[in-house]
Specification:
The complex is a heterodimer of chains A (about 325) and B (about 280). Chain A is mainly alpha-helical. Helices cover about 80% and strands about 0% of the residues of chain A. By secondary structure, chain B is mostly helical. Chain B is globular. Classes of the chains: A mainly alpha (about 325), B mainly alpha (about 280).
Chain lengths: ~325, ~280
């Protein structure tokens, strides 16, 4: 092959490569349109002044007004907020406590916890929902006669499906979520700080409060927000476990089945905005480095602890890892 | 740190474990117990021990086949849509990588119900079909309540779950491998077929599993986009538990679903492990 014929082929090949690259980029753009256009259209049409779902007839807040004044919407919203808050609190408290301790369990127990967490993640929501439905109803059928028998007054409370069973279901995935987030963060963390704190005669409780938790704070908050949005948006678990209680996604679902109605777009938009804002907040806290402010009071605290204690030399070697982390934080 | 009192720290895992046991393990056990029970006279559960419910499932295979058919089809189409995008983000996007990835994930975190609703809104007779009619493209187009709408809903809702593992596999792939393949005279297509694709295969299998499993339990998509014409496992379960209250049969169907899912998960994981083993030893076959 002569050099003269080589150049054109190379050029042609590069041209073809550019064409392939360009069409890949165009394709990616189309997929992003596909992902965002439907949601954007729902948001856009929630501001439509007309009843028509095809034409945009002008900007108005009518449908927000209508949804906001609907007592059913408000009740569902309040239920959803209660459920989401309760399950996120449960998920955060239990999940954090478990994530902190799981490192110190025996390998067998660690595996049991890992299997339970894995199960909570892979189990289809529909299976979890209907299992909880069965368990709650059967327990209530067994317990209600006893309650009525033992209750001192006349109207004994009746157990059954309701907000509590929804909370029970939503918090299962929430706990697994918080534990996963925190274990990932703990794995990145330098445990020499905790070791140093223990060397300096801090009690385990004090180490937890002053060393471990400040470093985990943002991850805990991020996990809380993720668990909250999951429970707030979830449809299928609530669908099976709610009994007579209404939640916002379920109200939305039943009005969608009755037919398209512009106030659905308004409620949907509110849900989208709340979720996206919460997600951005969670991402902000989860990707943030360990707050630098936490490292400084920590230094003061440990030095005052060593002052109280005659075994001060321990402060010398312990300081190095702290400085190392402080450097890591500042970069 | 063995120094930090072990008993207190062991105890602090107890609430989470207890919660999992009471609200997940125990209900699943109840599910299996009910699945071998007898239906009560007015619905519900009336004790007993029989495998009749599982045998009865043989007469109700339609929802299982239907679910399998649509889940496999939907997963395949999702793979076809996701792979080029994952390739673009991992290999071509350069510094915009993380932004592009985040843009895939953000819609995924908005409620599944709303994402599915958006398509009922778009595909419904007043949506896209009406617009196309106005433009004179087609006269009478039905999009909603068709198999097309179901597959579209699956692709739309599950794209990120397919994309992420493929992206991770492609991102880990050392660019010098592709360069080496080119230096050795392989064309673009040959490089893709013999280097990139086999090395990303574990990601592909992982993505397919992540999509297939939840799609099989899908309820919203067949109801809202399929119009209830396509009867999925999810619809059958909702009917058996919430309408006809035939709990033992419903529990048996759920039990069969769990078994099917476990089998798919085990096979899929084994395949993925073999593929990644093959990938690291360098023999793509």
């Amino acid at each position: 092959m002569s050099a003269a014929s080589k150049v054109p082929t190379a050029m042609r090949r590069r041209k073809r490569r550019d064409a392939v690259d360009r069409s890949l980029a165009v394709y990616a753009g189309l997929v992003y349109l596909f992902l965002f256009v439907p949601i954007v259209i729902v948001v856009l049409f929630s501001f439509n002044s007309g009843r028509h779902v095809t034409q945009f007839e002008g900007f108005s807040m009518t449908w927000y007004d209508q949804a906001w004044n609907d007592p059913m919407v408000l009740e569902a919203l309040s239920n959803s907020l209660q459920i989401a808050t309760a399950s996120a609190v449960i998920a955060t408290v239990f999940g954090t406590a478990a994530a902190l301790a799981v490192r110190r369990l025996s390998p067998t127990t660690q595996r049991v916890v890992a299997i339970l967490t894995y199960l909570a993640v892979v189990i289809p929501a529909i299976v979890l929902g209907l299992s909880i439905l069965l368990a709650f109803v059967m327990f209530a059928d067994w317990a209600n006669p006893w309650l009525a028998y033992l209750w001192p007054g006349d109207d004994a409370p009746e157990l059954g499906l309701g907000k509590l069973s929804v909370i029970a279901g939503e918090s299962i995935f929430g706990i697994a979520l918080v534990m996963t987030v925190l274990q990932a963060r703990l794995a990145q963390m330098d445990d020499s700080l905790e070791r140093a704190s223990a060397d300096l005669y801090a009690t385990p409780w004090r180490t937890l409060r002053q060393v471990t938790l400040p470093q985990l704070g943002s991850a805990i908050f991020g996990g809380f927000v993720l668990a909250f949005t999951f429970a707030f948006d979830d449809f299928i678990i609530a669908f099976f476990t709610r009994g007579q209680s209404q939640t916002l996604p379920i109200l939305l679902f039943s009005s969608i089945r009755r037919g398209v109605n512009p106030s659905i777009n308004a409620i949907a938009t509110v849900l989208v905005v709340v979720t996206v804002l919460a997600l951005l907040l969670a991402l902000f806290f989860l990707t943030r480095r360990t707050p630098g402010g936490a490292a400084l009071p920590l230094l003061d605290d440990t030095s005052s602890a060593s002052r109280e204690d005659p075994a001060a030399p321990a402060a010398g070697p312990a300081r190095t890892p702290q400085e190392r982390t402080a450097e890591k934080v500042s970069t | 740190m063995p120094k930090l009192i072990p008993r207190a720290s062991t105890l602090s895992t107890a609430p989470a474990v207890a919660w999992f046991v009471v609200f997940m393990v125990a209900p699943l056990t109840v599910l299996f117990v009910v699945s071998v029970g007898v239906r009560g006279p007015d619905g519900g559960y009336a004790g007993g021990f029989t495998f009749d419910n599982y045998l009865e499932l043989g007469n109700r295979l339609a929802p299982i086949w239907n679910t399998l058919k649509f889940s496999l089809l939907g997963t395949a189409v999702t793979l076809l849509v996701a792979y080029p995008l994952a390739y673009y983000i991992a290999v071509k996007a350069g510094r915009r990588k993380l932004v592009l990835l985040a843009l895939v994930i953000v819609p995924f975190w908005t409620s599944m119900l709303i994402r599915t609703y958006a398509w009922t809104f778009l595909l419904g007779s007043n949506g896209l079909p009406a617009v196309l009619r106005e433009w004179g493209v087609v006269d009478d187009l039905r999009l909603l309540n068709t198999p097309f709408a179901i597959v579209l809903g699956i692709v739309y809702n599950y794209l990120p779950l397919m994309l992420l593992p493929i992206y991770v596999a492609l991102e880990r792939l050392d660019p010098s491998l592709r360069a080496a393949s080119k230096d050795l005279g392989a064309g673009r297509l040959a490089t893709f077929r013999q280097v990139t694709l086999p090395l990303s295969a574990p990601g592909v299998v992982g993505g397919c599993l992540l999509v297939l499993i939840p799609v099989m339990g899908e309820y919203l998509i067949p109801v809202l986009l399929g119009g209830g014409r396509s009867y999925f496992l999810g619809n059958a379960l909702a009917d058996l538990f919430l309408q006809s209250r035939n709990w033992p049969l419903g529990a048996a169907l759920a039990g069969a679903f769990i078994l099917l899912m476990t089998a798919i998960l085990l096979v899929g994981t084994a395949v993925a492990r073999r593929l990644s083993g093959a990938a690291t030893t360098g023999s793509p076959a």
